[in-house]
């Protein structure tokens, strides 16, 4: 990838694609992580004498929609970069171009949500050409969007000299270590809702790892594939054969697989609902498994001992609803307490759990990209990386 160090920003107007897809409530940004992670790139370019035009998406609007305006992000950004301002123009519009052309070195302009443009997700070449007029060079720092072949990610990158930002570089470097010569033993912890979301990652990582720990709802598809009684737990019936096949392949590759031994179960997903503890292979109807139990938490912590490389994706239970968050918190703590290991967490919900625990600094890398990090581990590259080569 061409990087920022290949670009002399002096006197240039640089178009930067950031990922400011952040949670907003009541017109205020709730979690600034992605904004903070973009600052090294923005400051480097500003100190080098550039002016900046920023593009980002926010949420999944179907056309222009004030609920998905980047205005609150502009406010939050200004607290860190006082020269930044938000202009409510469609990024492909004439007004946007005029504002961009009037920028002086040191100034920063954030334009409105790229997904307000109908051509954005279709990677419309005509829209990409209008984006390209906003700057003289393009920097892609939106790692969380780098798996999308959209106009503001790959379309415009083909039309301007294009470079990877510092966040993009940091993510690719950290995630590459999970694929290339990882230190062994190498453990992967997977959870979350569905096996089907994670098949690609499992298949890619299986030949590289030593231990695979499976929790979350996806564990029940594996347990059922082994003939266990999982009650009303979430099972992907159409993936039972696949689960069996993955377990067989793991065995063939000498990967030790850890599944839950006990589960915290309830009849409904509801805060304060009455919970019961069952062995993972005998959950009676009408109960559903909603978290890993205390025996499993201990077994998983032991299975992680001595690991030199760890990748974690997906919560161990319905961590949004206490008390079903305890398994996820226990696994987060177990990984964070490993000494000298290279530890990475990726995935929107698992990263939220790590942040909630205040354990962010005890991981070697916390990825800002959920889907992007999984797709990178599956394919070893992303559309947004290819376009910078
Ligand atoms: P990530 O965003 O970290 O990649 P996923 O999106 O794959 O994680 O999965 C997170 C979701 O999985 C959460 O909403 C959580 O409630 C759900 N989940 C985890 N365990 C269970 C379970 N046992 N039953 C139902 N849902 C579960
Ligand atoms: Mg998720």
Automatic annotation (TrEMBL):
Catalysed reaction(s) here are: (2R)-3-phosphoglycerate + ATP = (2R)-3-phospho-glyceroyl phosphate + ADP
Instruction: Give binding positions for substrate.
Output: 19-21, 34, 57-60, 115, 148
Tell me the GO BP annotations in alphabetical order. Answer: gluconeogenesis; glycolytic process
Location in the cell reads:
Cytoplasm
Any one Pfam family match given in the protein's UniProt record, by short name: PGK
Determine the domain of life of the protein's source: Bacteria
Assembly and interaction partners: Monomer.
Name of the featured protein:
Phosphoglycerate kinase
Native organism is Thermus arciformis
Q: What is the lineage of its organism?
A: Bacteria, Thermotogati, Deinococcota, Deinococci, Thermales
């Amino acid at each position: 990838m061409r990087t920022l160090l290949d670009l002399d920003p002096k006197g240039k107007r640089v178009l930067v694609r950031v990922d400011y897809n952040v949670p907003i409530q009541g017109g205020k940004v709730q979690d600034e992580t992605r904004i903070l992670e973009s600052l090294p790139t923005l400051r480097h370019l500003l100190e080098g004498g550039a002016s900046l035009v920023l593009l980002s998406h926010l949420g999944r609007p179907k056309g222009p929609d004030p609920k998905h305006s980047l205005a609150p992000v502009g406010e939050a950004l200004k607290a860190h970069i006082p020269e930044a301002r938000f202009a409510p123009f469609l990024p492909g519009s004439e007004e946007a171009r005029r504002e961009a052309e009037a920028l002086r070195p040191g100034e920063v302009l954030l334009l409105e949500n790229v997904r307000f443009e109908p051509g954005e997700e279709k990677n419309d070449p005509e829209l990409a050409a209008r984006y390209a007029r906003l700057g003289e060079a393009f920097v892609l720092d939106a790692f969380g969007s780098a798996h999308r072949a959209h106009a503001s990610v790959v379309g415009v990158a083909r039309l301007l000299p294009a470079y990877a930002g510092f966040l993009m570089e940091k993510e690719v470097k950290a995630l590459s270590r999970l694929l290339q010569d990882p230190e062994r033993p190498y453990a992967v912890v997977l959870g979350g809702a569905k096996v089907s979301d994670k098949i690609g990652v499992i298949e890619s990582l299986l030949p590289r790892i030593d231990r695979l720990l499976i929790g979350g709802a996806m564990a029940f598809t594996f347990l059922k594939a082994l003939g266990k009684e999982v009650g009303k737990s979430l099972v992907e019936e159409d993936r039972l054969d696949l689960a069996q096949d993955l377990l067989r392949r793991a065995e063939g590759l000498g990967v030790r697989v850890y599944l839950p031994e006990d589960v915290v179960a309830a009849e409904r997903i509801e805060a304060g609902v009455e919970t019961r503890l069952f062995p993972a292979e005998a959950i009676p109807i009408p109960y559903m498994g909603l978290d890993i139990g205390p025996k499993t938490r201990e077994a998983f912590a032991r299975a992680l001992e001595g690991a030199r490389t760890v990748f974690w994706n997906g919560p161990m239970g319905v961590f949004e609803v206490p008390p079903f968050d305890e398994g996820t918190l226990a696994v987060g703590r177990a990984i964070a307490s490993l000494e000298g290991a290279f530890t990475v967490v990726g995935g929107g919900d698992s990263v939220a759990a790590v942040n909630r625990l205040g354990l962010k600094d005890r991981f070697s890398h916390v990825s800002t990209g959920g889907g992007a990090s999984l797709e990178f581990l599956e394919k070893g590259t992303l559309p947004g990386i290819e376009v910078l080569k």
